[in-house]
Amino acid sequence: MSRSGSSNSGANISSILGSTHKRYKAPVSSEARASRLAPVPASPGRPKTPSGRSTTPIPEERGISMMDVSNVDPEEVLVDFENVEADVSGEIDPSWFKSSSTTDDKVMVSVRVRPTNKPVAWDVSADAHTLTLDPLFAKNDQAQKFDFDAILTGSPNKPIYSTVAQSHVSAAMEGYNAVVFAYGQTASGKTYTLSGDDEEPGIIPRAMKDVFRHIKHNESREYLLRCSYLEIYNETIQDLLAPVGSAPVGLQGGNGGDIVLSPLREEVVTSLKGVHEVLHRGESHRRTACTDWNARSSRSHSVFRLVVESRERLSGVTRPQTPGGSGRHTPGGGRQTPGPRLQAIGGRSVQTSVLSLIDLAGSEKATSDKERTREGKYINTSLLTLGSVIGTLSDNAAKGKSDHVPFRNSKLTRMLQPSLSGNARISVICTINPEAGAITESTSTLLFAKRIKSVKLNAQKKEVVDTDALLERYRQEIEDLKTRLAEKEEVLADNSPRKLSRRLSAREKIDESKAMKDLNNRIQQLTKLILTSNTVEEGGESRPGSPMKLDFDMEPYQLQQELLAARVQLESQARQILALEAAMPPAQNIEGTEAELRKMVQDEIQKRTEKETWAEQLVKELEKEKKLRIKLEEERKALVSFVSMVDSLGLGGLSQAAGQLTPTSSPVRNKRDHDEGPKLPSLLDQVPEEDWSILGDLSFELEMKAKAMDGKSPLRRGILGELKQNLTSS
Ligand SMILES: Nc1ncnc2c1ncn2[C@@H]1O[C@H](COP(=O)(O)OP(=O)(O)OP(=O)(O)O)[C@@H](O)[C@H]1O
């Protein structure tokens, strides 16, 4: 299973958004692909090309920065009819912009029959909007016939979008909450319908394009768009726009029966490209896995939400185009600029609506894989809960009852509670596999579709002076900034009653000018976040990037200040350069200094090398000396033991005799004679150090021989005599 960038979903969105990303799910098997040309009657739309679909993987996630709405960088996100980017042209049905066709108080229910080249068990009548189970397969010969708002077949996604979703997207743009969701057994085509692929973009990318078209064609309103993307996996809500591993999203009841999802990222989008990036990132995080039925089966329910804030623009205002054609304008603080101005204090009401596009995971049988089976249980349980919620709602509607609805039994139904309770336009597209082997699952899907059809809706527009709406917060900030800018201008103006009593110093003027420039920048940035028809570009070119190179909308006074500030800055930089030059020594001095320095360094290196060599020699000498000392010490010890052995053998005379060999006599007394007469020096004292080694050898020899015999034997005496002789001669 993956929750990585391996999905190709970005593509299906991208093709409609004009990008090169590839499709979301793996292609159908060749068999299934062939089935696109299957004998199921086709709904209107352009014919499908027989070519296989591209499977080029989407690029790795590009680390698109996350955007926290509360801390949004306005430079990146404001949009309006003048500044909406990307190509929103083509295939526009003007009537679509005039009205929202979903005035119904019922859920719109459509069935999409997936193409197949195997024998089908259902008789499909797209014109009559009916589906009938072939009597051959019917149990007890009871023909099952279902009729819905639309029965759709074939591979093209465009007719699907215009039939089941376009009016709901329009409703969302007009202030109604709208929900479109796909329901059906696994591998029946839900993701294909919602996301589509390169060749056949699905409902989500088509809906987003329509959103920008709507803005382009509605000059009387301005808009702010935010989107979020989440999935419900094993009953845990995950934010698909947050980095992988982020904390799950909590779900709580809010004011007025609303649901609050937190923490959930909402990203302000100002262009189709921006929406594409968000969708691409979210889909790359979706959990999909290969199952027994689908190479890329969705293992979660996914919900793409677009929050649409809009309000009336002031009448009769048009935004001037900058030389770059970006449509940006520079609000002029207290000045009367010709550009449109967001409403002054006392604001217009803001309409807020949410468009939710939901791809439910498919119901499935247990699989051979343990993990897939576990996921399947969660999926089936939440779909069952959805079924029972729909069942109760439709019962309540049919019988005028108000029985408890078990919304809280699953995250999915809890999240859908406000919409299912009536405050949304809902369109459900049920996907089925018409093959004989899938009759049970298809029948179950159709029964669900039938039940949800009778749920009663009563969607209301939410239009209030909403201080929480981002649009309103930005408006308020823009107004505050303008007031501050106007005050500064007035203080600086020569003929102003608020003019300062003293002349401003050059430094103060520069500071003031800089502060005004910052205020102006911020106003422009905020203004850019708000979309209007003037800011939507039909050609789809990007808005010119650099905002403040030179702003021709500036007042002459401000331009003068800018110029002054720039000059002073240049002068100061020139002074700094001069000062640095003066502080530097002449070139030849630098060269001389360099040569000296180099020589010093070389000398240092040589000295260091010499010291190292000397230290090495010293260490060697010390080693030698140490070895010598050890040797001498050993010899001394041997001699001591020899002497004591000689003493123990009663050969004190040897010592004496040995003592006579040496020119030096030690005054040290022999311990034997300690009481009488002059004391003989010990043998060791009498032997010069250089002869100790000879004594050592003799000592060793003596010891060996002494060990070899009985100490009292005549032989011993002979040997000792011999030794004595040796010693005397040495
Ligand atoms: N109408 C159709 N025309 C052509 N191909 C289709 C159609 N419907 C589905 N497919 C193909 O069938 C395969 C399965 O479809 P898809 O993944 O959309 O099913 P699903 O219902 O989303 O499955 P799951 O619930 O397992 O996620 C895909 O390869 C898709 O391209």
Verbal overview:
With 730 residues, the chain is α+β, with helices and mostly antiparallel strands. It folds into three domains: 9-44 and 104-311 and 357-459, Kinesin, CATH 3.40.850.10; 468-571; 590-729, no CATH class. The protein is 42% helix and 13% strand. The chain has 20 helices and 17 strands. Strands 1, 5, 6, 7, 8, 11, 14, 15, 16 and 17 form a ten-stranded mixed sheet that branches. Helix 6 (166-173) crosses helix 8, helix 10 packs parallel to helix 12 and helix 13 (470-492) runs antiparallel to helix 14. The longest helix has 62 residues, at 587-648. The radius of gyration is 48 Å and the shape is flat. Adenosine-5'-triphosphate (ATP) is lined by residues 25-28, 32, 36, 114-115, 155, 184, 186-192, 294, 297-298, 361-362, 431. It holds the Pfam family Kinesin. Residues 457-529 form a coiled coil. GO terms for molecular function: ATP binding; microtubule binding; microtubule motor activity. Residues 106-455 form the Kinesin motor domain.
